Amino acid sequence: MLEITDLVHSYGTHRVLDGVSIRAAEGELVCVVGPSGCGKSTLLRSVAGLIRPTGGRVLIGGRPVDRIPDNLAVVFQDYSRSLYPWMTAANNVALPLRRRGQDRRRRREAAMAALDQVGLADAAEKYPWEMSGGMQQRVSIARALAYRPSLLLMDEPFGSVDAQTREDLEDLVLRVCAHHGMTTLLITHDIDESVYVGDRVIVLTRSPARVAADLPVDLGESRDQIATRQLDAFVRLRAEVGRLVRGGSPTSTVLEKH
Amino acid sequence: MNVIRAVGRLWLVPVTLVAWEIATRAAEQPFFPPPSATLARMGEMWLSGPPAHLLLTEQAMDDFGPSLARLFAGWTLAAVLGVVAGIAIGCSPRLSGYLDPLIHLGRAVPPPLLVPFFLALLKLSTPAQLTTIVFGIIWPILLNTIDGTRTVDRQHLETARIFGFSTAQRLTRVIVPAAMPKIFAGLRLALSLALILLIIAEILAGSGGLGYRLLSAQRSYLYPDMWGCLVVLGLLGYLLNSAFLLLERRVLAWHRNARQTT
What we know:
- The complex is a heterodimer.
- Chain A is α/β, with parallel strands linked by helices.
- Chain A contains nine helices and ten strands.
- Chain A has helices at 40-47, 79-82, 89-94, 104-117, 133-146, 163-180, 191-197, 227-230, 232-245; strands spanning 2-11, 14-24, 29-33, 55-60, 63-64, 72-75, 151-155, 183-188, 200-204, 211-216.
- In chain A, helix 5 (133-146) packs parallel to helix 6 (163-180).
- Chain A starts with a strand and ends in a 13-residue tail after the last helix.
- Classes of the chains: A alpha/beta, B mainly alpha.
- Chains A and B meet through strand 6 and helix 2 of A and helix 8, helix 9 and helix 12 of B.
């Protein structure tokens, strides 16, 4: 579904991405984790077609990304700058659907269904500034869902909300991504989160970023905030990812070749 | 509670009026008629007409009608031209590169100096007056619109790109609403400038209207008439600004609230 091959990007002489290759199968939720400032956002912006990388190749569904693909949605970290404050939640969700050629009534229905999925059916007529941060990020997720992308990109989507909200949103994303079978690339600096949410965790090195490890997460389909985090497999994997993010080398117990 | 507070802030108005009344009566200067005399004269001039016309006299129609028409026509014209040109220039770095020097040159010319030129060019007084108003007030609208259009949040624009908004959608749903707070600030500034330029234009190229009335009252030594015009102009400016603020609050409710909560 998603194939990133030898992606290189430099800002001037400063190299940020140094040959990053990542693959994601249809319906897979891949977490990319790495130290702050290692080029995670540059990676996401290259995949989204917002910037043209210096080198390498990105294929989505077999087609190269040369401009912004029409089957892709992004959830940004900063929901307050991504939602339009002059529109209600329902209008924010419905606006991108014009591109899908739906009439006003269909767009409205799709927006209401998406808001319902994220638990905000009652807040459709609210403006972003009338909602908490967590609610705004739910609207942002609903907007992506209604758009029915084949690839969903999330850039630190839970980075600006409190811990409780963060857990709720993690479970929400797990649920809706599984429900829609959406291929998802989630970028985070949170080690714990990457293991909890991901089907696979890609660890990037310090800048210039390379792939330090590609770890499968064998925690099963259904996850639970308390129980999953207590599993031995979770604890071991989290420790491994933590070591790698801090610049350690992979240990053979967890790393599998594939 | 709000009423009490509003009244509490207004106490200075009657106090000033009473002090003015006492001072002018004591001074007995013809240049400074007491407010009571000015008010009486205003009533006589403008508000002693038939009830069917809301008490407005013929003279009130002659003084206010043309002035208000010019004011709104000039302001509306400047608003349309300024906003449309501002969005075009704000969206196109190339256009703004060409036009920036011209805009700053044009802005630096004091508009009253151009009245004789516009009169010579356009012959008739009303087009010359309108041109003066438009030329004088378009700058804050134009510059604010350019600035507002240029400073749309990058992520708002990126979101529009990701979701593939059409050019029309990007303009009407993202850029214009985002620029609206700055556009409104420009429009409000332009409204108060429009009143000033209206009076200047009517004094310099006049054939009726409040500015013309003001000038002829001064030339005929009718000081209460002159003061009446000044008072009415002050009130008009105050009312226009209040009405515009009311409109702004409705249109930009999202902006005010968004700023309060973040």
